[in-house]
User: Fold these one by one.
Assistant:
Number 1:
Amino acid sequence: MGFPDLLFSTKGRINRGNWWIGIITLIVCAFVIGWLFWTVQGTSMFFTFSGRLMSFILAVAVLFMGYCLNAKRFQDRNKPKDFAYVALGINLLKAVSDLFRFTGDPWVHNAGDTMFQVALVLVGLWYIVELGFLPGTAGPNNYGPDPLAPDLYPTQPKT
């Protein structure tokens, strides 16, 4: 599976190693892009609609890629990709809430910020244990072949 398929498709299964690679890549890329936004916009990133909109667009892109990773990993554990909607939904609600400035002020947290933080920590712990540490289903399952199984039909070099 290539990197674009890893981040932009929900088909098939991925093992823990590929999930960790994808998650770490997303975190690093989001941090770097967020830092660049901060460098260019400063605090207006939080206090102007255009700054919040740019942050929202970045969040949606990262959330979609995270959803694809989580969906494939849940499928490796022979569970429907619908479980990946939990984190996607909470994060998307938080991003919309930040966009319209109900939450997201880095200097003054409100009850909404706290509720989102608690929910995201709980879901994050569940995902880390389930997707990052527990093994996938051995052998083929409803979502495809085992990503750790040896290739039964290796390609022959052309002569």
Number 2:
Amino acid sequence: MTEEIIIAGFGGQGVLSMGKILAYSGIMQDQEVSWMPSYGPEMRGGTANVAVILSDDRISSPILNEFDTAIILNQQSMDKFESMVKPGGLLLYDPNGITHHPERKDITIATIEGAKEASNLKNKKTFNMVVLGAFLKVHPIVKMDNVHKGLEKSLPERHHHMIPLNEEAIKVGMDKVQIIQNLKELV
């Protein structure tokens, strides 16, 4: 199994952290992992994305031109990456701020209102964990106990008291994700 993922949005949305937690979770499952971030000079407010590869085999290159999954958190990223999802792949997005929704018919499309759900949790920093939970519900590529270990590895120890809230946010994302178009049902 090899899963090639792009996570893209604005700086400050936790895009790189989400990718890092997925990467650490893959490491905990003895998978080969690549984590390659990309962001503009303005970290907060500029665009940021991270390519994550999880594989049971060696990864030949971290450079990708198409993805099995795209997790999209802003319109600029939708414009750039929607066409790069492989046919049969998954596009998960937060509709907040999206003006041109995906129109492809050859992929599974799911939404999660991550900003709204993070607000309901009274902590907007949980936004990325809500989105991660939605992804893991639709496509459970890593085990939840490994996600917990990934949180421990990626968060500085001074923030470990936030792990229970992050895990709650993941569960909320799993509960609230909506599949708009399920390719498996269309076939």
Number 3:
Amino acid sequence: MAKILITRPKGLSDNLRQKLEYEGHELLEIPFIKTEFIPIDPGLIQEDWIFFSSKNSVQACLNSGIDLSKFKLATVGSGTSKALPPNLHISFQGNTTDIEAESKRFAVLVGSDSVCFPSSNRSLHSFAKHIQSVKVNVIEAYKTVLQPSGAPMTSVILFSSPSNVEGFLKLNVIMPSQKIIAFGPSTATYLASQGIKAFQTLDSTSEDHIFSTIIEAIDSL
């Protein structure tokens, strides 16, 4: 049996946990960051599009009572799309972790329209910086605050963001025997800046891909 740590809040990976338990493994969900939402004045969003880069960006707008039906909606991926009310139409959904390629595809669709990005104070603005020909309004909608804590020893760690890596490393070290999986190139790049090489960088955040990557990491132990 292997223990796997994923840096997400409890309850977000229930199906993944069940699949791993069926294989005889244990999944721990421990975030090393917390989110503080910032009220948004709906009048600040006058753009044609709203681009959601995370579930938290969706929640920030919903918390502020913004009428999302007035805008064209875009999301970074299927997980973020699921956070939106089902009655809303999503005009663009990213489907890979190749941010540069996806941002170019989005820019073509946007054309001469303007885009609002409700974002974290620690956001890398990966999509926004790749569509410089488009009018962009970046709004700080929530704060990502480090929440360091001690973590149990596990065979595999899945880091879901650079901030989670930073929070983890405040009180923990990564052992050479551990297999590290990065959610996308931004996380892998931050890991590398800390001298940590990812065993795998996810090129899709689908549950099936995450599961198969974890099994591959376990098999390589």
Number 4:
Amino acid sequence: MRENDEKELTRHDIEQLLQVFGQKFAQRRYPVTVHMLLIGGGYMLTQHDIQRITRDVDLYPLDRTWPDTVPPFPGHVYEIAQEIAREQGLRHTWLQTLPERHVKVTGGVPRGSLWRTFGIVEIYAPPADYILFLKLRINRPKDRADISYLFDCLGIQTREQAQALIDHYMPDQANQAYFDISTKLHRWFPSSETNLDC
């Protein structure tokens, strides 16, 4: 790996780093299995056959409660991530553990399916439509290629189909207004009669 703070990660890099991450958790004799959900660029790289890179790996801890005998989880994640950053020459934010407000949806965060096990860390991959929902909700310029890809992957070609996806994960109209969903969908579908041209 190239040693600088702007390291761009490939699929191979991510798998290698998560392997080290899981091993270091096990070396600390952490007493429980750790379950984490992979989202963001790390998800796109590892779950889809696309030519892409990312600068960080976004994980969401699926376990929200811990036995009293278990050491504080966030502290262990931070310590291990910083140790790996020093050893591998990575930016200190290469691993992001997202707070619940960034990923929560009506009905709870989908657990998805087990992708890989690294030491005592189990990494789960959510449904593709959930990742598309998260990216549409934010709709950053850097997400546009992923959004277009996921539209195509999921067969979404009209605004009505995209709106149905939003309604599934965010049925509350007040929340949709807060995130200005209507405007964001309009950027992809300028009129309700216009199909998405991928």
